[in-house]
Design a protein that fits this description.
The complex is a heterodimer. By secondary structure, chain A is an alpha+beta fold. Chain A has helices at about 1-20, 60-65, 90-100, 120-140, 165-170; strands at about 75, 105-110, 145-155, 170-175. In chain A, β2 (about 105-110), α4 and β3 (about 145-155) form a beta-alpha-beta unit. Chain A starts with a helix and ends with a strand. Chain B is mainly beta. Chain B is about 10% helix and about 45% strand. Chain B has helices spanning about 1-10, 45-60, 80-85, 135-150, and strands at about 15, 25, 30-35, 40, 60-65, 90-100, 105-115, 120-130, 160-165, 170-175, 180-185, 190-195, 200-205, 215-220, 225-230, 235-240, 245-250, 260-265, 270, 280-285, 290-295, 305-310, 315, 325-330, 335-340, 345-350, 360, 370, 380-385, 390-395, 400-405, 410-415. The longest helix of chain B is centred in the middle third of the chain and has 17 residues, at about 135-150. The chains are: A alpha+beta, B mainly beta. The interface of A and B includes residues 124, 131, 149 and 176 of A.
């Protein structure tokens, strides 16, 4: 439960950030990175960090807001492929940024395959997909302990049917945050 | 925690809603004609003989003869007239009787004759309760089958399989004829890969109830289950060693899908025995426990390999075709059943391990999860017919086929249980 609240709290912070370009200069605040120099002549506006708890559901607004890229959670694959296609790069980058900025956030990545082939071999193929996403998130700064990559094989199709239209929806990785699974 | 308790509540042996039935769609070249005279005495005898006849006919190796009303009605003590039964074209004859005991149980006594050789083949008696009349029938069928074919019968064995109905999954066990089905586990998430322990009292399986694959061992008589593998990542593809002490599983805890050994009682550390950057999965022990067959795509496409059960350098086993998965060594160790893809078709193939001959034994095209009967005669498998998941059984020579239609659900992931006493 604590994890969920912390994640929700973190989500509020990101929701705030999301509207502010990273390089924009806001009110001067102390940079807490070690070695960083505080603003030269400015008065310190540093205040002790407060431990806020947000128990409303809007805490996860950024993750749920359809207008926010973070609400998109699925990465789709070509047949027998495991690489994250270029079109999903910005999506993975956004989630990596979220994980980076919210160390308490936890993610479960579920890899999936279409129905063709052996069930257990497909568990292996789905695992390869989810681990590919995890690796990419980690290269972009997410921490290993934030992410668990697992496979659902062919067992949880998004679309029913034995045709390419359904199969293309079922070859995917889904990213779920703590509290969502 | 709440969910776990909920599952436990369902563990007790509930009669399953659906029922498998069996249609024979092929038969052996020569089916032995056998006369099974309805057992004399208590009326339960007639239902017993119906079970015996259905079992023997389902094997595809026997044809039950219609027996007209006989006067006097023969029993196991009646002197047999070989000439008369020969004129009815019987090659074999079963006669017997059932008596109700004072303790409420029944006793069946029966005798089997070889009519052609004009020789008695044995007599036996069983005690049973009314609830277990079908089990008594299966035991009689096993006796007759073994005496007449020289191989052990599998009519008293059980099968396990998964039924998907809407979004509900049930792991069920039933008699080999599909009757007396019960469910062990009901879940809203998938269940795959059930495997029987060698003594038949435990089943290992993979359940997704925690939103990821976790391996459990279910103790049948105690109605309890334990988590065997729940490491970070995926946990799947359990296989029992022949001594029942070790379970091989596939874990992704160190990245990729690799084969590990675990103590079946859940004690001790995991031991990694495969080392590759590929998918290594679906381990299966050879019957002597020395070898592990497994599926690996280390060569670019999934093929079957073997290695020493303690680990070591793998050797490739399948060479024909670009997709071969789900290895299942036969009980005598001579043959390997597996699923092969040819074009878009997935079919069950048998590889003769002595001469490397491959024979495809099914004509369906979405076959999965072959499972040998403990006598090696039949192979149970999952396939798709009319858009529905169904079980099918095929004899190891490909000649005899049985469909096991199931009312009200998709059936998959069959596992044929071992011989039990």
């Amino acid at each position: 439960m604590r994890t969920i609240i912390v994640a929700a709290f973190s989500a509020v912070l990101v929701a705030g950030c999301a509207t502010t370009p990273e390089d924009q200069t806001a009110a001067k605040v102390e940079d807490r990175k070690p070695g960083a120099k505080p603003g030269a002549a400015s008065q310190s506006v540093d205040r002790p960090k407060i431990a806020a708890v947000d128990v409303t559901s809007k805490g996860s607004a950024a993750l749920k807001d359809p207008a926010n890229i973070l609400s998109r959670r699925s990465i789709y694959y070509d047949y027998d492929r495991f690489d994250v296609k270029d079109e999903y790069r910005s999506l993975v980058e956004a989630h990596a940024k979220y994980l980076r900025e919210n160390p308490a956030a936890r993610m479960l990545i579920q890899g999936n395959t279409d129905e063709r082939g052996g069930r257990e071999y497909n568990v292996g193929l789905g695992q390869r997909r989810s681990e590919g996403v995890k690796r990419m998130l980690m290269l972009l700064g997410a921490r290993e302990n934030q992410i668990e990559s697992v496979s659902l094989g062919e067992e949880k199709p998004q679309a029913e049917g034995s045709n390419e239209q359904a199969w293309s929806k079922n070859r995917r990785s889904d990213m779920l945050y703590g509290g969502e699974y | 925690m709440r969910f776990f308790l909920g599952v436990i509540l369902f563990l007790s042996a509930f009669t399953a809603a659906g029922q498998l039935s069996i249609e024979i769609t092929g038969a052996g070249a020569q089916r032995t004609p056998i006369a099974i005279v309805p057992f004399a005495g208590d009326p339960v005898g007639a239902s017993l003989t119906a079970v015996v006849r259905a079992d023997l006919e389902r094997s595809g190796m026997f044809r039950g003869l219609e027996v007209p009303p006989l006067s006097p009605h023969p029993n196991e003590n009646t002197p047999v007239s070989y000439g008369e039964w020969r004129s009815r074209l019987a090659d074999a004859l079963v006669v017997g009787s059932v008596a109700a005991n004072p303790d409420g149980r029944f006793e069946v006594r029966f005798r089997l004759y070889d009519i052609v050789k004009q020789a008695p083949l044995g007599a036996i008696a069983y005690l049973f309760t009314r609830d277990n009349a079908r089990a008594a029938g299966h035991r009689i069928a096993d006796f007759v089958y073994e005496k007449l074919t020289g191989e052990k019968g599998v009519f008293s064995t059980q099968i396990a399989y998964v039924v998907k109905r809407g979004t509900t999954y049930e792991l069920q066990i039933a008699d080999a004829d599909g009757e007396r089905a019960q469910y062990l586990l009901r879940s809203n998430e998938p269940i795959i890969s059930p495997v029987w322990s060698p003594e038949g009292r435990r089943i290992a399986y993979v359940s997704f109830e925690s939103k990821k694959p976790i391996v459990y061992v279910h103790h049948l008589s105690e109605n309890k289950r334990q988590v065997i593998a729940s490491f970070k990542g995926s946990n799947s593809a359990p296989a029992w060693s022949p001594d029942g002490k070790t379970i091989a599983v596939v874990l992704s805890v160190e990245g990729g899908s690799q084969i590990y050994l675990l103590n079946a009682d859940g004690s001790g550390p995991r031991r990694r025995i495969s080392n590759s950057n590929s998918i290594d999965t679906e381990p299966r022990y050879s019957n002597d426990g020395r070898v592990l067959y497994f599926t690996s795509d280390r060569g670019g496409s999934p093929q079957i390999y073997r290695m020493a059960a303690s680990g070591g350098e793998p050797q490739r086993v399948t060479f024909k075709g670009s997709y071969n998965v789900s290895p299942r060594p036969s009980p005598d160790g001579r043959v390997l059943a597996y699923v092969t893809r040819d074009g878009g078709k997935f079919q069950v193939a048998l590889l003769d391990l002595s001469n490397q001959q491959v024979q495809v034994i099914t004509d369906s095209d979405r076959d999965e999860s072959p499972s040998f009967a403990p006598n090696g005669r039949m192979i149970l498998l999952a396939t798709v017919r009319g858009g529905r998941g169904v079980l099918s059984a095929v004899s190891a020579d490909g000649r005899i086929r049985q469909n096991l239609p199931y009312a009200g659900g998709d059936v998959r992931e069959p596992a044929w249980g071992p011989f039990t006493e």
